[in-house]
Each structure stands twice: as structure tokens, then as C-alpha cells.
Input
Amino acid sequence: MKTFFTPIAFLTGILAYSQTNNDTIKSKEKEIEAVTLTYKKPTVESKADRTVFNVSNSSILAGNTTWDILRMTPLLSVDSNDLLKAEGESVTVYINDRKSVFTGKELKDYLQTIPADNLLKIEVITSPSSRYEATGSVVNIVLKKRDDEGIKGSVTFNNRQNTQNSQYTNLNLNYHRKKFTQTLIGSYSDNTFVQKNAFLNTVYENNILTTGRAVSVYRGKNPSLSSTSEFEINDKNTVGVVLEMYRGKRNNSSEADGIRTIDDVLDYSYDQFQNASQLSRSLGTNVFYKYYDKDKNRILDINLGTNYNDQDDHNNFLRNTVSSIDTSVSEIGLLTDSKNRNYFIKIDYTHQLGKSGGNFEVGGKMDINNNAIANNLSGNLLDGLSTKDVFHYEDHINSLYFNYSKTFFKKLEARVGIRYEYMDYKIRQDIAGTSRNDSYGNFLPNILLKYSFSDQYDLSLTYNKNLWRPWYSEFNPFMQPTSEGFYSRGNIGLDPNPSDRVSMKLGFLKKYFLSARYLYTDQDYWTSYLTEGDKIISQETNFPGKVHKYSVYTSTNQSFLKNKLNVNLSLGWNYIDNSDFNTRNKLNGASNSISYWAGSTNVSYTNLFNKNINLSAWVEVSNQNNGNSYANRTNVFHNLSATKIFPKTQMEISVQLINIFSRPNFDSTSFNQIGSFRNSNKSDWYGVSLSFVKRFGNQKVKENTKTDVEKSDGGEK
Output
């Protein structure tokens, strides 16, 4: 805990000193002639169905990408595989209410090309309405909208020193004239990251132990370009086009060594070297039409879009194995060509029924995916491996939804909704001939109730039925080597994961919140391990069994020192009951219950010494325990930054200190039927960052127009 308090105590001391001395000096100069009260949105807003992180005017944006800011957003965390999670569960990411086609590492790479300077706010929607696809929590990234006449924008240069050096640059342009608005964002990054990993794998039968370590160096040069063109036909009708282009050229090298013993007798030792290169190309298009009648509060929103992604991977593994019998040198080459195609049409309509008749929203979406992964193996270490195959995945998802919200007696806000989704999908391999055709439909209800006892006290209750689907590549059964010297493959028999979520939140004095959450599921899919000969293989597997998750959190957002100092603090306790889950899956050695603390704080100070210096700090204590995986240590993440603003030249200089007191280490143990597998992963997310930002034109920001019912009623107030 000393690590947790050190950066906060250091920052708080400076702020208190600066405010005291500055106010004393000013009081001696002259008397106060006038008092100006300026309303400023709190950094973090806690609402019935979501937590809103208002970052548009925060110094935390300087020199960061959107991915960096997501890591510092309350309720969000990133695991050792760069998967974004909310309260320990996977999330779906939207950008301006438009679902992103990326997930996992692809999502990270893409969001690292979007500058944080363009962010207005981030909404973590833990109880989404039926408008959103039924995947659990939703993260909606809301970008700034500038519509002042003329050209405006910014240029950013960033240099970050981690284990090795990385650079990032960005150009953000906006042009508005009369009814036409054009936004253009171009970015280029040249990043190098080093990752260190240690592992201890135990197979219960014959007491087979494999221990080792791996060091990987990732290098990537990633340009991206996005364009948004918008034309207002008249006061009610708007059309536009969004284009997103991304190209990633990456390579990595790794060295791994390990020792395998059977009943404490050496079986063999090995060294493995990997060289890999990857080229990824993505193109996303979205044509939209919006009708908005402000007087009658009617909104029609139509989106038609496509997403294309091609990815070529070249991997070469060289393995030296030494046993009591002989010494061998083996080599495996892996060529992977992935092609993903997505097409969709989405229609949303919102209508207000009179001044007090409530609001209803209806809509639907047709989503088509056509993906293929071609794999080829070569070399002399191919025993038990398929050398060539093409994996195909196709799906059609049709959905309809309905939401209705109304306020009763000026105190009770209610929102009820239901979503129906029908999915038809086909999976096959060309050579192995393995295939699966399946379909299913689900009704997914949700409810939100909020009662305001007064303007100081309110109580809200939400319920959501959710369904999380496997990512298409998790179905691919083609087995391939990994950088640690093991193997991995997908599972064609994976099933979706349903869950029920209930939450209750009490708000009092407008700035204090106490919440309780409960999640229940009776089936999930997690990473498991199995053995075939001398191979240890990881794959996603269905795990039946009941899991109960409980959490209690308290949070507050406070302003001090004439609104210059803003502090948000969240602290919670979590409890997971895995007893039925462990028993049904025979997870020997796994704990039947887990409890742990978690919390985060965001601190910002504006205009230090009245010298246009902004300070900010972020600290998070997290402990990720999910399914059959248990954390062995608690991480303390932190980020300290200082930004100097030069108003006349519209220049900014920012310095960040990233996890300088404690380098992140993701250390966890996974249990399955055959044994336990421990991995310790040292992240490269630490070091020092220096940024220069040059702005030009009018930087005034317009609050984005409310476009759906849950932003005007049923949980927003």
C-alpha cells in the first residue's frame, strides 16, 4: 500500500503548498473586486446505468492515445493479453455510438492511432439498454465535435522511453463552413515494447513440470487515417460519410528456454528462438443519415457500413532440445493469411410521446461476417501437426429491439427494454473437413428504475440479461506453436456465455455513491490446457457450472481550492463464489471463493501558480480473478503528468511519469482438469513520456447532440 499512497501524497503536498502561497500573495496585492462562478463538469460522473469520464479539458490527454486514456478510465482495466475489461468482464467498444469491428490486440493497435486530444468523454455503460448488442458492458468513446467556421486543429509529437524508445505523431484537422464539416485525423507511430514472461506448468499425472522464461521484443510502424464528412441538408436532416484506414507493419523476436521433468527426473531442456513479421491492412466505411426534429424530439438514424481487414503473418521457430538420449535441432515455419469482411445496416428511431408521455425507441440491425484464415506449416518439427488448412467462418446476426422510458410523479424514472437476436453461423476447414452449422435466438430483457427522494438523494436499480459470443478466431482448430515453446488452437465447439446482472446504486449529496452489483452465469468459456504426447496445448474450452460474483463499491467526486483541484476516488470489495464451477469441472487446487479489494483515483489540478500549469495523477489497484484464473499478486498502476500551456502560441508541453514506482507484473495461475499453469508477465507499460502539442484555430468544443433516449431520460439525471 505504500506504493499506492506515495504518488498521491507527493502531488497533494505540492498542490496545497502552491494554493496557499499563491492566495497569500494575491491577497496582499489587492482586494477582491468581483467573484465569477463558472460551472465545470466533474471529471467523473456516476449515473444509474453508466460512469462518465469527462476528459475534454483534462491535462491527462496531452501526448496520450485513446488506448492510454482507456487504461486510466474508472471501472476499466487491461489484462496481460491487452484485453479491455470492465469489472473483470470483456467489453464491447463503440466510437460515437458506432460499434468497432476490432477486438483484442487488433483493438489496441487501432486505438493507439487515435489521439486522445480528440476525446470528449468516455462512457462505461455497465447496464446498457436494448439499443446495444447483448455482450455485457459497453464502452462508448465520444469524440469532440467542432463546428466553428474555418480551419482548426492540432499537431502532436510524442516520445516515450520504456525499456526501449517509441515515437508517436498526429495531425488533427477540422474544417467547417456553413452546413459542411470535414474532420481529418492522421497518425503515425513507431513503437518498441519488451515483454518478459516466466511460467510454471504442472500436469498432475506423472507430476510433469515445465518451467521457463521468455523475452519478446515487439516493433511496429503503424500509420492510420480517418475522415468524417458531414453535411446538414437543413435543420432536421444530415448526411455523412466516415472512412477509417489503418496499416500495421510489425515484427517481433523472442527467446525462450525451459526445462521439463517427470517425477522430478529431467526429461529434456530446450531453447526456442522466434522471428515474426506481420502486415495488417484495414478499411472501414460508414454512410449515415440522421433526421432530428428538436421540437418533437424525434430522431431517425440510419447507418450502412463495411469493414475489411487483411493480415499476413510470417513466423519462424528454431528449437534446440537436449535430452538424456540425444540432442536435436528443429525448425517450424508458420504462414497465416487472414481475411475478414463485415457488412451491416442499422436503423434506430426515437419518438417522444407528448411532453409527459414518455419516450420509446425501436430499431434493428443486420450484420454479416465472412472471414477466412489460411495456415501453412513447414519445417522438420511437424509430428502430430496438420501442415496446411483454410478455416472459414460465416455468420448472419439479425436483431430487433424496443425501449420505453417514462418519469412518474416527477420522482420515479423507469426504462424497460427487450432485444431479440437471431444468429446463424457456419464453420468449416477445407482439408480436415471439420465443420459446424448452428443457429440460435435469444430474448434479452433489461430494466432500469431510479427514484429521487430529493435533489440530494436517489436510488437506482438495473437488471440486464447478456450474451457474450466467442470471437471467430477462437473457433479455429488449427494447431500452431507459440513463442514460449508450447502450442495453441481454437475450439470449434465453443458456445456463447449467458449472464444475468443486477446492480443497485445509492447517490447522496450529489457527489457520493454507494453501489452493489451481482452477476450470475452457469456456463462460460476460458483458456484451458491439455497434453498430446509431449505437447502442452492451450485452447478455449466450455466450462459448465454456476458462478456468483458480488461487489460493493463506494465513489465520490470532489472539487477543492476554488474548483482548481478535482479528486475522484473509487474503492470496492469483490467476492466470487466458484464452488459449483470448480466441482463440475474438477478443478483440483482451485479456491472455491475469492475476495479482493480494488480501487482507483483520478486527481487533477488546473492552473498551478496561475502559470497555466496543469497537473494530473491516476492510481489504480487491481486484482484480476476470472473463471479458472486466479491472480497471485495485486498491481498498482499509476501515471503522473504535468502540462505547461502557452496561450498566445497555443503550444503545450507535457511530461508523464508512467508506473515509475512499481512496474506492472501480471502473475496468475489457471486451473483445469489436468493441472495448474502459472504465468508471470512483466509489462513494458512504464517509463517517461514527453509531448509537444501545437494547436491552431478556434478550439471551442460543442457538446455532442443527444441522440438516444437513455441520454435524456431513464438514467441520465
In short: The chain has one domain: 155-711. The domain at 155-711 is CATH 2.40.170.20 (Maltoporin; Chain A). Residues 1-39, 704-717 have pLDDT under 50 and may be disordered. The CA atoms of residues 436 and 495 lie 12 Å apart.
